[in-house]
Amino acid sequence: MDSVTLTLFILGFVLLAGGAELLLKGASDLAETLGISPLVIGLTVVAFGTSAPELAVNLQSAWAGQSDIAVGNVIGSNILNILLVLGIGALIAPLSVHKRLIQLEVPVMIGVSVALLLLSLDGALDRWNGLLLSAGFVFYTFFAIKKEYQSNDPAQADETPETGDKSRHYNLFIQLLLIIVGLGLLVLGSQWLVDGAIAIAKLFGISELIIGLTIISIGTSLPEIATVVIGCLRGKQEMVVGNVVGSNLFNILLVLGFTALVSPAGLEVAHAALVFDMPIMIAVAVACLPIFFTGYLIERWEGSLFLVYYLLYTTFLFLNATQHSALAAFNSVMFWFVIPITVVTLLVLVLQSFKAEKQ
User: Fold this and answer.
1) Which residues are CB-neighbours of 176 under 8 A, at least 6 positions away?
2) What does the alpha-carbon distance between residue 199 and residue 64 come to, in Å, rounded to a whole number?
3) Is residue 140 within 8 Å of 148, Cβ to Cβ?
4) Are 224 and 84 in contact (CB under 8 A)?
5) Is 339 a member of any domain?
6) Measured distance CA(15)–CA(53) in Å, rounded
7) 184, part of any domain
8) What is the domain extent for residue 180?
9) How many CB atoms lie within 10 A of CB 115?
10) CB of 319 within 8 A of CB of 330?
11) How many helices (H) and strands (E) does the chain have?
12) What CATH number corresponds to the domain at position 174?
């Protein structure tokens, strides 16, 4: 791999992060101008903005015939969003969780993750699968916004600051400009990132699925990481958690759905993704329920648990990819100790939560 490719690969990360930041700021300001609540901003507008890198990378990968990168990118991003992004956020400050997420969005996230696995059992996501997932994205977005307007307090409308028409139009123009520039940077950055990732995969003999699950998923999740840090520092924890859950929904429904819909030959799903990575994604989504509703707060120690599991997951990927001699011992420790201890801990938390609510 020459220095030019490496430089473009690094610049791809930079452009993705910078473009997503511009898109995020423009979309968030636009949503606030229209009077949408912080939670729904996180679930829809912010989630769409931070999922844009995944969409850009996936479209480039699909047209280049790199299905493993497209599928691995989404699965890896969803696992990373919960384990790494929420883990970092909870370490900065305990994350409050809105009851709506527990009652609606998290169960939907689990259901969508299971649906993706079922649709992929034949080893591919064809255009009909893509159409179904894309329709789910449209339905969910419409439903989320409709539910927001139905639950809105009419008195809140009076709290919106009044601005002149010229000032309002100027603000809208700036917000739209930020969105357009951000999208442009995302497209360019995604092209350079995919090219560099393919070169790295060939150089080190690492499969494209592993590259998608780790390097690219981290690069395209930089907007979520930046959002969680800024949101926690500014005390907007509900928006942070809503962004992660909404982003995971958009990644499956919009990113994979639209990619499979427009891809010339659909998307092939690797056997490794079916038997390992997708089940891990589902397990991580299910683990959110007991952790989220125990006091409707993600404590620092729970954030630490998320980070430890992300480290273990990444470690397994590399041990498995290189067929390292430590792989068997690592699997034994995970299967006989780490996973059982985690399951027992979650069950204890759930029981304690139920007892606390009854009292």
Assistant:
1) 26, 30
2) 14
3) no
4) no
5) no
6) 10
7) yes
8) 3-154+162-324
9) 16
10) yes
11) 19, 4
12) 1.20.1420.30
* Residue 341 token pair: 């201890």
What residue ranges in 240-296 does DSSP mark as E strands? Answer: 267-268
Decide: 240 and 95 in contact? Cβ < 8 Å: yes
Please indicate, yes or no, if residue 46 is contained in any of the structural domains.
Answer: yes
Alpha helices (H) in 81-164, listed in sequence order? 86-92, 99-100, 106-119, 127-151
**Tens-binned pLDDT, residue by residue, of the chain (359 aa):** 567 777 888 888 788 778 777 876 777 777 777 777 767 877 877 787 777 777 888 888 878 778 888 888 899 889 989 999 999 999 988 888 888 888 889 999 999 999 999 999 998 999 999 999 999 999 988 888 787 777 665 444 444 445 556 677 777 888 888 878 887 887 788 778 777 777 777 777 777 667 766 666 676 677 777 778 777 877 777 777 888 999 899 999 999 999 998 887 788 898 888 988 899 999 999 988 888 877 788 888 889 989 999 988 888 877 877 777 888 888 887 777 777 777 777 777 777 666 666 66
Q: Is residue 329 part of a domain?
A: no
**Structural domain count of the chain:** 1
